[in-house]
Amino acid sequence: MLHPHLPSDERLPAYLRLRDALAARIAAGEWGPDAVLPSENALARDHHLSVGTVRKAVQHLVDEGLLERRQGSGTYLRKPAFDATLFRFFQMQTPGEDGQSIPKSQLIARVRVTPPAPVAAILGTADTIRIDRLRSLSGRPILAEEIYVPASRFPGLETIAAHDLGPLLYPVYYDRFGIFVARAIDDVSFATADAGTAALLGITEGDPVAEIERTAFTIDGTAIEWRIARGNARNFRYRSRIG
Amino acid sequence: MLHPHLPSDERLPAYLRLRDALAARIAAGEWGPDAVLPSENALARDHHLSVGTVRKAVQHLVDEGLLERRQGSGTYLRKPAFDATLFRFFQMQTPGEDGQSIPKSQLIARVRVTPPAPVAAILGTADTIRIDRLRSLSGRPILAEEIYVPASRFPGLETIAAHDLGPLLYPVYYDRFGIFVARAIDDVSFATADAGTAALLGITEGDPVAEIERTAFTIDGTAIEWRIARGNARNFRYRSRIG
DNA sequence: TAGTGGTCTAGACCACGCG
DNA sequence: GCGTGGTCTAGACCACTAT
């Protein structure tokens, strides 16, 4: 539901109420990955709506990136490799590399921590799991990541076998915890490396680094992850599409 | 039209053909800014379509950012302050400023030039107009811009009275040349200031600068502008929404 | 009050996929 | 061949804007 504290079915149009109802069932995990949803005819029958109205509700969820239609086959959950967007943007200027490949990920630490106050404010809790990773391409470290998620929404994440955490984290959120990252905001800025970051990235303390701070949100607008990624500013490139 | 070299009306669905027809009339300047388009009923009658089909065509153009619906009033051209996005992102960390205001613009030079080869390749021509501007907020320079557009598409741009060029360029493209910027790609990276940039920005040669390279596109995918903006890296912040 | 866009219906036929 | 989503119709009523 988009407004968990509101009844959602005030006097909204039928297609919005159906969209919310479907989003809630999706969020509840009623259909696993690659499951086919009820057909539009079935939804129309069950909700006493015309097919046109059902199509409008489904189209909303498609536009929001939750669902995927396959003509002749059915409507499915979409499981995007969302994490890859960070690296579709973060194109390291390696000659001969196109920057589209996903970097390897090396797990450095996972701990239950009280995060910095601003992060606690964003996530709405001081009980978080922190994940530190080093990501590298062609054997060279390019990005040091520091990730915070609310412990209550990710029970056991800090003890999942490391090999179950692939280079992409958002599919893990989805598959193991039913949490779908729908949106994110990135803030790119410039800083200098502290000793720890410098050691990880193989540069010198005080060298310029680029910082990407990302807040990720679920479909209902809850902040579900905050992370900061640091890379050598000298071969940094962040790409963004507008409009 | 989306595919100017194709007849566009092959055997496409009716709503797509109507969308293309409307886009062509918009591009031809049939309705000026703030003009009201024919009502959905009128379009349905004229094109021998049902209102539902017309609505789908119009909705496409709304989604693409060309049109804007106002219930009870009509459908209008949208004239977005698109240029402002650069500065919605480029939030200088000035205490007490929210970073949302649009910087003043000081025109430095306008010349007909052969651009650097990569820019010529992107724009598809070596005959361009280059515009240099310095943008400042609260009297302090924050961004030096270097802008290239194809001369053939902007006849007379280099001689337009300077006071007709406001802080926002994209509305000028639209109002004077009928060119609508629909999309852009930004590439953010870091470099060091050369003497000219340093002088403009009031920093020292060799200081770190952030560089935003932007390629802007029309609705049919033609690159219509390339620009590079440079600012002091130390109080730089670029914000991007994903998903 | 007249006209606009917003929602919704109850059908129809088509294009596609899959067994 | 059957069921799916994709397109389209010809209406209806509602909510809103402008006069």
From TrEMBL, chains A, B:
Protein name: GntR family transcriptional regulator
SUPFAM superfamilies: Chorismate lyase-like, Winged helix' DNA-binding domain
Organism: Tistrella bauzanensis
UniProtKB keywords: DNA-binding, Transcription, Transcription regulation
Domain HTH gntR-type residue range list: 12-80
Database matches in CDD domains: WHTH_GntR
InterPro entries the record matches: Bact_HTH_transcr_reg (IPR050679), Chorismate_lyase_/UTRA_dom_sf (IPR028978), Tscrpt_reg_HTH_GntR (IPR000524), UTRA (IPR011663), WH-like_DNA-bd_sf (IPR036388), WH_DNA-bd_sf (IPR036390)
Taxonomic superkingdom: Bacteria
Record Pfam families: GntR, UTRA
Gene3D superfamilies linked: Chorismate lyase-like, Winged helix-like DNA-binding domain superfamily/Winged helix DNA-binding domain
